[in-house]
Write a structure and sequence with these properties.
2 copies of one chain form a homodimer. Chain A is of the alpha/beta class and 322 residues long. In chain A, 38% of the residues lie in helices and 18% in strands. In chain A, strands 3-2-1-4-5-6-11 form a 7-stranded parallel beta sheet, sandwiched between helices. A two-stranded parallel ribbon of chain A has the order 7-10. Chains A, B: Belongs to the NAD(P)-dependent epimerase/dehydratase family.
Chain lengths: 322, 322
């Protein structure tokens, strides 16, 4: 890898990955429109001689083409990651996760770049019947527009690998936590408790079981699977922890760390929202067989996230939720 | 079902289905832009008082909205069915099969229509490892843009069923044959042999094993699965025959019926084109459990197709290939 493009490179996972690539000596191009990315996340990176920024949207062919110049590997992390509100604007996931991926693939084809890494999601399994869920789980029945749009992105990449000799490595993530985490329920809980530490409303019945992964473990996993890919082809890896945590236990960990004792109100129902999965636990045997394993426990990942929140009130408390 | 919209209703399967619905007393609206549909296929239909036409494209929101008026059930059959040439224009499948399906779903939501039938494809399995392939085959690795775009359409419909209480019935078809069949390799073979009966070039090595289904059996299957669907939900059915036919055997049946003895030239390779499946055989236990079974053998379906070709040279020989 000589020159890499990171779409969504000013976002949570994107900027963490971009930092790592630049530190490893790769020339890094960040493409971001700063709608949900933060300038602060790439400020240090862009001081480096081997990092540059193209400000724009992957839906803008001109910006995309400019960002693609000389690139051999694309980490396509830009996405609408707003899983819960898909039903409020049902074509946003299609545009930002499926059509955007098609645009990236076309820009790669035009520029001669043939290696793509894609951030998919455990939600692409819909509601699977096997736990932990392996990559070869049954043909999914999608339960969210987010999952559907990411599965569609995977399918496009796979067809490009087969049809044009691309190399594609897809990761189905659990929820990622850590420094720069700026959306999702741990973020929402923290902000709500900062506003009012006396009570907390939790979507669902609090018994949904989730898996999390620390962002540096995620970046290590991404690079591990990519390094194992030798030549054209298509591989999918689950990327998560073997642990799960029920929502109420996450809440307990968060409130303990924050030193608050709110009254917990459950909104009720087995799912936090329509399309929410009551249980996400991915079978990560495939990526572990390459020698990867997470360095942090779920609890440690939550603690790191909270410590970062405390150190960055200017981002965490000032931002309007994405 | 009171009033049904058939997108692609002037096409091969769409017009056959529209005829059947109208004969059953359903009010039928045909939406077609006649790019690949034929006015001749809906001429008789449109004489009926319970059938009407909206001329336009599903990518045109205004035409779609007009066609949706008062409709309770949508048979979304409009598609780019040009499986072999996806790599020549890689965003066409996305537009016509995925984005178009999203547009149809949005128009349904706006109009209050909540029941959709979708023509997917056995190609959505990519290259499966189980034969005959059941609906619950492993999470597919797409090998064609066509398969990827149809799988993406399925995912969208499934998410709408889960999120908005829609009813979705998806059929993964094998190749459909019969009266009004106007694209695909039987069509191409026939036209080539009419031009020059002395030789025939066959893509691949002639050993690819395909499954076919007669169009009236297909329409019966569509209506059988739909009738079994009671209230909101999402179901997928394979729709095909238990028989398969090797390409060379199809060629032999075609040439015998046509009374020609061409020299057969094989282009070579296990696949007819990139993204072609060397073997398609769907496990149709699920739809058969509802009492459906095909009435015609594969050979009989081929014969009916050839007889229709002979009777309609003005369509079969005059048309430029889609």
């Amino acid at each position: 890898m000589h020159r890499a493009l990171v779409t969504g490179g000013a976002g949570f996972i994107g900027s963490t990955l971009a930092d790592r690539l630049a530190a490893d000596g790769v020339e890094v191009v960040v493409l971001d429109d700063f709608r949900t990315g933060y300038r602060a996340f790439v400020a240090d990176l862009l001081e480096r001689p081997n990092a540059s920024l193209v400000e724009g949207d992957v839906l803008d062919p001109e910006a995309l083409s400019r960002a693609m110049d000389g690139v051999d590997t694309v980490f396509h992390l830009q996405a609408n990651a707003d899983v819960r509100f898909g039903l409020d604007h049902p074509q946003r996931d299609l545009e930002q996760n499926t059509i955007a991926t098609s645009n990236v693939l076309e820009a790669m084809r035009a520029a001669g770049a043939k290696r793509i890494v894609f951030s998919s999601t455990g939600s692409a399994y819909g509601e699977p019947t096997t736990f932990p869920t392996p990559e070869t789980e049954a043909f999914p029945i999608q339960t969210s527009l987010y999952g559907a749009s990411k599965a569609a992105g995977e399918g496009l990449i796979s067809a490009y690998c087969h049809g044009y000799g691309f190399t594609g490595v897809v990761y189905r993530f659990v929820s990622i936590l850590g420094e720069r985490y700026t959306h999702g329920h741990v973020f929402d809980f923290y902000r709500a408790l900062k506003r009012d530490p006396s009570k907390l409303r939790v979507l669902g019945d609090g018994r949904q079981e989730k898996s999390y992964l620390y962002v540096q473990d995620c970046v290590n996993g991404i690079l591990t699977g990519l390094a194992a890919q030798d030549g054209p082809g298509f591989e999918v890896y689950n990327l998560g922890s073997d642990e799960t945590l029920v929502v109420d236990d996450s809440v307990a960990r968060i409130t303990a760390r924050m030193g608050v004792t709110p009254e917990i109100e459950h909104a009720g129902g087995a799912r936090g929202w329509i399309g929410d999965s009551p249980l996400i636990q991915l079978d990560c045997t495939k990526i572990r067989a390459l020698g990867w394993k997470p360095q942090l426990t779920l609890g440690e990942a939550i603690d790191r996230t909270l410590d970062w929140f405390e150190a960055h009130p200017e981002i965490v408390l000032e931002t309007s939720p994405a």
